[in-house]
Design brief:
The complex is a heterodimer of chains A (308) and B (173). Chain A has 308 residues and is mainly β. Chain A is 0% helix and 49% strand. In chain A, β10 and β11 form a beta hairpin. Chain B is mostly helical and 173 residues long. The chains are: A mainly beta (308), B mainly alpha (173). The interface between A and B is medium-sized, with 15 and 20 residues.
């Protein structure tokens, strides 16, 4: 081994100084015991180093870079040999900031994947590799006491969301949840959420169908539309309320909202509309009277009112 | 004992009803799959086997309309759910295809039992020692596990149906 760079830490705060030392063994510099050790930061030679001979004959050079302004630099320990500059060792130095506290943590219970999906905003770039971990525990009431820990949820690289699987959840009990961010310079935590998974359930939208007139189904009144709808099948066990929005297919028309429609009434006659006009209908539902999140709006159903 | 129109939190009762519907939906999926895959569609065809296996059925006398009594009903409901947790654990290894359905049913029953137990604790109704599952039947063959699955699912549906009617009375505003 010819030369060896040693650093107190490979990671420093951006703008901080860094001190490094390089020790060269005698058998490497046998040609000239007083060889001068040189340093390069990236491609630039650096002034201001101190060199001394150790008792065992090795040479040691120490350098202090007053201020690192780049998130990543390559430090090289070199030796002048004839007309060339020989690189004996290199070290990577990273510079950045401790992680900011993640924020805007929110969670939704997804009944399709049967998992609690939480997402957050990571905060400003700190220039360093940063690990995010979603941490949680089972609790009661307002999460003042921790009952059972839940295994950490580690998102895939670079993602700011994580899914806690059903087997780690108690759907009707409170749980405390937060996000931890960690890099080489420190750790930070988001504010803690206290939630009950089923109280943040987000349903899939209902499905709307036209109702063709038949012996059982009278044709709609003039200025009315008749349609049939069904809540999302996996949510049939959940009491819910829905709302309808409709809009005539006319320039600059706006949505009108109708609701609440309870999930037991599966057929609806919408009246007070313009005659012989096409209307776009959409519906969404939410768990109710127990808490929940509104689903997205359903795909549109387009129906036309009869002539007067 | 609490008056029939109980002072139990309305949200607790609504959650219980929702959880019951969820467990019933899970149970229906298990029954449908046992029927579709193994042609075991009617519990009535397995009564003799059921007696031989000794599948216990938990009491719900305090939930019946004639003797409706909320504290007793909640306790019996909780004990029954604990029993069904044990029965479902005894069915483990039923078939690889049914394992996810069985797992979901167990998770939902366990959640439901915990929800009731915690509410009973908060109301000071919980027994000092939580009920145990008791001795469970032993299913010694793949057929017995599947038949046991049909019987347990069928019994569970009846159990929940009765409890649902009882709690619904208390949930009416």
């Amino acid at each position: 081994e010819c030369g060896r760079i040693s650093l107190p830490t490979p990671t420093v705060h951006l703008g901080d100084p860094i001190t490094a030392s390089c020790i060269i063994s005698p058998n490497c510099s046998h040609l000239d015991p007083e060889s001068q050790i040189l340093w390069k930061l990236g491609t630039e030679l650096q002034p201001g180093k101190r060199q001394r001979r150790l008792a065992d004959g090795r040479q040691e050079s120490t350098i202090t870079v007053p201020r690192l302004d780049s998130p990543w630099v390559l430090l090289s320990c070199c030796l002048r040999w004839g007309n060339s500059l020989q690189i004996l060792d290199q070290a990577e130095v990273q510079a950045g900031y401790p992680p900011a506290a993640p924020h805007n943590l929110s969670c939704l219970m997804n009944l399709t994947t049967n998992s609690l999906i939480c997402q957050w905003e990571p905060g400003p770039n700190n220039h360093l590799p940063t690990n995010f971990t979603l941490k949680s525990f089972k609790s009661r009431g307002n999460c003042q006491t921790q009952e059972d820990a839940i295994p950490d949820c580690v998102p895939n690289d670079g993602q700011n969301h994580c899914s806690i699987p059903r087997r780690h959840l108690q759907l009707y009990q409170s749980m405390g949840i937060w996000v931890q961010a960690e890099n080489a310079l420190g750790t930070s935590k988001s504010p803690q959420l206290c939630l009950v998974p089923m109280d943040v359930v987000k349903l899939e939208p209902p499905t709307l169908w036209a109702l063709a007139p038949s012996p059982e189904v009278a044709a709609p009144q003039p200025g009315c539309l008749l349609f049939h709808w069904e809540p999302w099948k996996p949510s049939l066990y959940i009491e819910q309320k829905c709302e309808l929005r409709h809009q005539p297919q006319l320039a600059e028309a706006s949505w009108a909202l109708v609701g609440p429609l309870l999930s037991q009434t599966l057929q609806y006659e919408l009246c007070g509309l313009l005659p012989s006009t096409a209307y776009v209908l959409q519906m969404r539902c939410t768990r109710w009277p127990l808490p929940g999140q509104w689903s997205d709006w359903s795909p549109s159903l387009t129906l036309a009112t009869a002539q007067r | 004992p609490l008056r029939p129109t109980s002072s139990l939190p309305q949200s607790f009762l609504l959650k219980c009803l929702e959880q019951m519907r969820k467990v019933q939906a899970d149970g229906t999926v298990l029954q449908e799959r046992l029927c579709a895959t193994h042609k075991l569609c009617h519990a009535e065809e397995l009564v003799l086997l059921g007696h031989a296996l000794g599948i216990p059925q938990p009491p719900l006398s305090s939930c019946s309309s004639q003797a409706l009594q909320l504290t007793g009903c909640l306790r019996q409901l909780h004990s029954g759910l604990v029993l069904y947790q044990g029965l479902l654990q005894a069915l483990a290894g039923i078939t690889p295809e049914l394992a996810p359905t069985l797992d979901m049913l167990q998770l939902d029953i366990s959640d439901f039992a915990l929800n009731i137990w915690q509410q009973m604790e908060e109301l000071g109704l919980a027994q000092a020692v939580p009920p145990s599952q008791g001795t469970m039947p032993t299913f010694t063959s793949a057929f017995e596990r599947r038949a046991g699955g049909v019987l347990v699912a069928s019994n569970l549906q009846s159990f929940l149906e009765l409890a649902y009617r009882a709690l619904r009375c208390f949930a009416k505003p």
